[in-house]
Amino acid sequence: MRRVFAPSWLFLAHTDQFHKPGDFFATYMGADPVVVTRDKSGKIRAFLNSCRHRGARVCRADFGTTRSFTCSYHGWSYDLEGRLISVPNRDGYPDSFHPDDWGLVEVPHVQSYHGLIFGTWNPDAAALVDYLGDMAWYLDAMLDHDAEGTVVVGGVHKWVLDGNWKLAAEQFATDWYHVNMSHASALMVLSPEGKAPKDEIIHRTGRQYVDPNGHGAGFPVHPKNRFDARTVHEWMDYSALRDRLGDARVEGPLTNGHATVFPNFSYLPVNGSIRVWHPKGPDKMEVWSWTIVDKSMPDDVREAQRLYNLRTFGPSGIFEQDDGENWSEVQSISRGFVTNGVALNYQMGMGSERYDGRYPGRTSELYSDAAGRAFYARWQELMNTPAWHEVSE
Question: Contact 273/291 with Cβ under 8 angstroms?
Fold first, then answer.
């Protein structure tokens, strides 16, 4: 929490969740509860969801619209700019008490990228776009289909899994390797022939993006078998997308693959799924998932994408169940004395990373642990580096 989550840019919400002043969404930054809102001037802000009197949450609802945030413990109330505006029994406080000194703690930096809102507690953090680096190019393949951007359809799915948050974040950054084995039955259900296309998946070619900040993305190139919603696929104007995004993105990360923005935000272009892995201790995570679609999508296409996401990567989805079972299995035996000390192999693709001139940054083979190695290298670097709050102390 102190060295990985506090200094990093963390995903908070989508801009489509905030249309008018007072719209809010409650979430977490690591283990810290925060509330994101649009203030009276239209600015998106994020505050620690904790009253300055005794520390209770000032917002108990998951989302909604409000004029102010009032703690239900003693009634301290705050406006949309985080200022303390009402204190019951105000006369009982000394003259040295100044409400201006006791506003909500505000997240110092909140920035958005193509509709995705991130925040960081680090007062001296680099800009979000610099933090993303070359990863932004891969994000654009899902977020920048047209000038209208993306919107959220449906609600936010939330579920709890036994497993460390890094298991999920690592897999989404680096692991196409598990697809053929773990998802064989799911692929069989989606296959027009009614059988798993194992050979086609095994021999797919593609690339895996490796980022020094711990981000990662993998994607097949010219996938022979498509498993996205057919209605969405038929609606896509691929010629226009080539003009906007270029051949490399359309033939690679546009519609398939997996990705993680370090530390705990991941997405799947194939079904418009974005998600955050909230850590709930060393052996438990809470998954929050949104479905996003192009704003220009007609209603029937949006509904097709929503249903496809529900069937595949929702809490009851045929792919999601497989992944959750794997992570829980890894976690369940990690407490053993011997198990905990056994080395694990991350050698796949070692030495294959290169700059190929087609994809930004360094990329490895599709089947590779390269992005996983970079993910843990970044985690190790942060764990061994005093954060800004430790340096100042």
Answer: yes
- The answer to whether residue 282 scores a pLDDT higher than 90 is yes
The 10s digit of each residue's pLDDT in 248-276 is 999 999 888 899 999 999 999 988 999 99
Kind of pairing, strands 32-38 and 206-210? unpaired
Question: Beta-carbon neighbour count of residue 84 at 10 Å?
Answer: 19
Which of 17, 49, 45, 57 lies closest to 30, judged by CA?
Answer: 49
Give catalytic residue positions: 74, 175, 178, 183, 323
CATH of domain 10-120: 2.102.10.10
d(CA 307, CA 304): 5
Of the candidates 153, 102, 233, 174, the one whose C-alpha atom is nearest the C-alpha of residue 374 is 174
Domain ranges of the chain: 10-120, 133-336+351-383
By CB atoms closer than 10 A (0-12, 13-18, 19+), residue 222 is exposed
Q: Is the pLDDT of residue 298 over 90?
A: yes
Model pLDDT for residues 122-160, shown as the tens digit of each residue: 999 999 999 999 999 999 999 999 899 999 999 999 999
**318-332 and 165-174 helices, crossing angle to 10°:** 130
Which of 88, 118, 86 is CA-nearest to residue 99?
Answer: 86
| Domain 133-336+351-383, CATH class in plain words | alpha beta
Q: Over range 67-87, report the average pLDDT.
A: 97
Positive or negative, the Cα torsion across 156, 161, 164, 167? negative
Of 382, 278, 279, which Cα lies nearest the Cα of 7? Answer: 382
